[in-house]
Design brief:
Complex i intermediate-associated protein 84 protein; mainly alpha; TPR-like_helical_dom_sf
Length: 835
């Protein structure tokens, strides 16, 4: 007796219940004599032994979307305003706004354009609705918090969008309205700082001229509250740097003239700052011009640059191979260095260190070896200042040399300089190992980069300077056939434990990797964790990779393509209409019209104008249904039964057509009616399809050249009246002197042959060259053969073609033929029509 049956029998006996076998062949007819159970039983549950339930594996749950703290509440506000529903309270919104800004400031993270938009909407809403609660306590963020947000927006790594710009200006206006009453100097410094940051944001967005005009307006109208505010040059310097970086030399000169007209002095300190900026940008000509202007200053004390300006200028000379100017800069630097050593009152270690580092870099670029740079370091250490202190090389010195070797693609010398640092007792830091990872990856040494990353893991990274290198390493590992999945996930888990942000390219490559392993939960968790922290452009970049995988029919199965689409649709609501339409076409091409129509239904549910379904979307859906439903015409193989296909296509067609009737935004056009005519013809309803032709004829737009072959196709498939409609349409075409295309002629021949008028169809073929100048080709003859559906009719046409066009018959046979179940044959010619 089987084990499970023995267990069942014993349980019944112990429970004092009868033993019944419900599939007994000789069961009694009076089925009402069913045994009554003496206790409540739990069906469908099999007992398993476990130790306190430890052996039961918990069900995998999909991770929720990972939003920045406070962002979800701000999203609720935006949704409530759009839907005109009740928004969150101002107290809750203020708390959410504070949490959001604090999280960004503490994590040194930038705002995406989506986050900036929600923050802008929330701040405006709070200003409009937070005049105070019953106790008079305002629900508005404090000045320091808004200042921190303004600094985040002004950082060079900040992303750029209209939302960022509007948010910065809104913050400044709010700070001006509610400025705290501090002392004059303190308030002036705060105001200038806020103004400078706002100007920097405006300049980052390419609107430096507007920023200049705004500054000039503030100065001319006397809106600065003190002489300090009026004479400050920090915001003007930001405008000048932005104009120079944009190549607007004329606007920069206008700005300098405006400063002079307003009485703001342009001293060598400003010129030195501009010189440093030009040098960092690699603009040799402007840097050289400013350097010469400073050196021509009659005031000797004003001729020297800062050590950092010297360093930037020297690096610019190195990058652009300006050896002569570089030699001059080196001499000036050494003179300045000697002045630092001669200063008995104020030893300037930091500027001197910058000059020494630049000297090492110049020596390395001049062809001096590592040993000679080592000797220069010994000289630096032996030189002492007036107080007995001296300078020693540090990790910044080594990193600068390593970075220079990377720019020259000399990894061997980079490794030697790291060894030189170890000789001096300088242990590599996170920046060193990050540079090492990058130049090893650039040389294809993935294993060497992994070794450097293992050393990097032991280093302290307060500013997450290792994240970029780790992302590049993960991308390289994921695309390398040599390394295993576990190797990749070791790095991924390390970053996840630190709650580090992945780059969009990393998320894309990891998502594809998980898809290839059929780990859908991991794909969802990955996207839910990182996708909502990216800008819209970065999110669309990830979505594009997933869409490309869906469209890759050669390497992606239909099941996996559907899973990829569902995940993409769920997480990337902003996926464009064009991308969704390509996916819909892909599922039609894969022979899954049900999936394609699900994609269409999802597009109908969307409300945004860039994603919702349009008339073109309906046309594509109807055309896809038509192509899938016409195996007789297209002669394509199918995996499902013809009756099942017809029923499915009819059901899908009804759903799409009914949706079109209910869609108030859709105005039937000729292409859309063409698609309806094509779809109903393919689904076995040519008489109803002809009704759409009459609608097209009576419409203001009228028929197109594509409409006529589709109408002839409907006549071809009609069981009654098709020949009459086809001849009437053909007569009308000739009477109106419409240009007859090759597709029209073939469609008319098919309509006649489909209605058993073989002789007249053959007559039209014979007249084709005389009347229209076309020699009958394989498409015209193949259409005649395929449309004459029937064994005897096709045999007659075969003999006729062999007699009249023997070479064309040979070409037809080379195309291949498919024999249908009921006997007729179909040549593999493409008779698809476009709406």
């Amino acid at each position: 007796m089987p084990v499970h049956l023995t267990r069942l029998v014993i349980r019944r006996i112990l429970s004092n219940e009868p033993i019944v076998y419900r599939d007994c062949l000789y069961r009694r007819a009076n089925t009402y004599l069913q045994p009554q159970l003496h206790r409540i039983r739990r069906n469908g549950y099999t007992q398993t032994r476990s130790f306190f339930g430890f052996s039961r594996e918990p069900e995998r749950r999909v991770k929720d979307a990972d939003f920045t703290p406070g962002l979800e509440k701000m999203i609720d506000l935006n949704r409530a305003l759009n839907e005109q529903s009740k928004p969150p309270t101002t107290a809750a919104l203020c708390k959410a706004f504070v949490s959001f800004v604090q999280s960004k400031h503490e994590g040194k993270e930038t705002l995406s354009d989506i986050e900036a938009g929600h923050a802008l909407n929330t701040l405006r809403y709070l200003k409009e609705n937070s005049m105070g609660n019953n106790n008079g306590t305002p629900h508005l963020p404090q000045r320091k918090l808004l200042h921190n947000l303004l600094c985040t927006l002004a950082s060079k790594s900040s992303r750029r969008s209209e939302n960022h710009l509007d948010l910065a200006e809104e913050i400044f206006r709010h700070l001006e309205d509610v400025r705290l009453e501090d002392s004059a100097v303190s308030d002036s410094r705060k105001r200038i700082h806020d103004l400078t940051k706002t100007i920097e944001v405006i300049c980052l967005h390419g609107q430096a001229v507007r920023a200049r005009d705004w500054l000039a307006e503030l100065s001319s109208k006397g809106q600065f509250m003190s002489k300090f505010e009026y004479n400050t040059t920090r915001p003007w310097l930001s405008v000048l740097q932005a104009l120079y970086s944009q190549g607007s030399e004329s606007e920069a000169q206008k700005t300098l003239q405006t400063m002079q007209d307003l009485g703001i002095s342009i001293d060598n300190r400003i010129k030195s700052s501009l010189l440093q900026f030009h040098a960092e940008q690699g603009d040799v000509a402007s840097s050289k011009k400013l350097y010469e202007d400073i050196m021509r200053d009659p005031r000797v004390d004003e001729r020297h640059l800062s050590a950092f300006a010297y360093s930037a200028l020297l690096k610019c000379c190195l990058r652009n191979n300006e050896r002569e100017l570089g030699q001059t800069i080196v001499r000036e630097m050494l003179e300045k260095l000697e002045s630092y050593y001669a200063d008995t009152h104020n030893p300037r270690l930091k500027p001197a260190k910058a000059i020494w580092d630049s000297s090492f870099l110049w020596a390395a670029s001049s062809g001096k070896g590592v040993d000679e740079v080592d000797r220069m370091m010994n000289v630096m250490v032996r030189r002492t200042f007036s107080d007995g202190s001296s300078i020693e090389p540090d990790i910044d010195t080594i990193n600068q040399l390593v970075e220079w070797c990377m720019s020259r693609k000399e990894p061997y010398f980079a490794e030697r300089y790291i060894s030189l640092g170890l000789k001096w007792g300088i242990h590599p830091n996170a920046t060193t190992y990050s540079l090492q990872i990058m130049y090893r990856l650039s040389g294809g040494d993935i294993d060497g980069a992994r070794a450097a990353y293992k050393l990097l893991q032991a280093e302290h990274c307060p500013h997450n300077e290792d994240i970029a290198a780790a992302n590049k390493l993960i991308q390289a590992l994921a695309t390398s056939p040599k390394h295993t999945f576990n190797t990749i996930m070791t790095l991924v888990d390390d970053l996840n434990e630190r709650k580090a942000r992945f780059e969009p390219e990393t998320v894309s490559v990891l998502a594809i990797t998980h898809f290839q392993r059929n780990e859908l939960h991991d794909v969802i968790d990955l996207l839910q964790t990182h996708a909502f922290h990216f800008s819209e452009a970065e999110r669309l970049k990830i979505a594009a990779k997933l869409v490309a995988m869906v469209l890759d029919r050669a390497h992606t199965s239909t099941t996996r393509a559907w899973d990829a689409y569902i995940i993409t649709h769920s997480i990337f609501a902003e996926l464009s209409r064009e991308a969704r339409t390509r996916i819909m076409r892909e599922f039609f091409a894969r022979g899954r019209p049900d999936m394609a129509c699900h994609v269409f239904a999802h597009m109908r549910e969307l409300q945004h104008r860039d994603t919702k379904a349009t008339a073109e979307t309906y046309t594509v859906a109807l055309t896809g249904i038509a192509e899938f439903a016409m195996p007789r015409v297209s002669a394509t193989d199918s995996d499902i039964d013809a009756d099942e296909r017809d029923a499915e296509c009819s059901s899908l067609l009804d759903a799409v057509h009914n949706a079109m009737k209910l869609d108030l935004d859709i105005d039937p056009s000729t292409p859309l009616l063409n698609a309806l005519m094509l779809a109903y013809t393919a689904c076995g309803q040519p008489a109803r399809a002809w009704g759409f032709w009459e609608d097209i004829v009576n419409s203001k737009e009228g028929p197109s050249y594509n409409s006529i072959p589709i109408a002839f196709r409907a006549c071809e498939r009609m069981s009654v009246g098709g020949e009459k409609h086809a001849k009437a349409l053909w007569t009308r075409i000739k009477r109106m002197d419409i240009e007859v295309t090759r597709e029209m002629l073939a469609a008319y021949v098919g309509a006649l042959a489909g209605n058993q008028n073989i002789d007249e169809a053959k007559e039209i073929v014979m007249k084709a060259e005389r009347e229209f100048g076309w020699t009958p080709d394989t498409f015209l003859l193949g259409t005649l053969f395929n449309a004459a559906y029937g064994v005897q009719r096709q045999e007659r046409i075969e003999r006729w073609i062999q007699a009249k066009f023997p070479t064309k018959w040979v070409e037809l046979t080379r195309l291949g033929v498919k024999k249908m179940e009921d006997g007729p044959r179909l040549f593999n010619i493409d008779r698809r029509l476009k709406p």
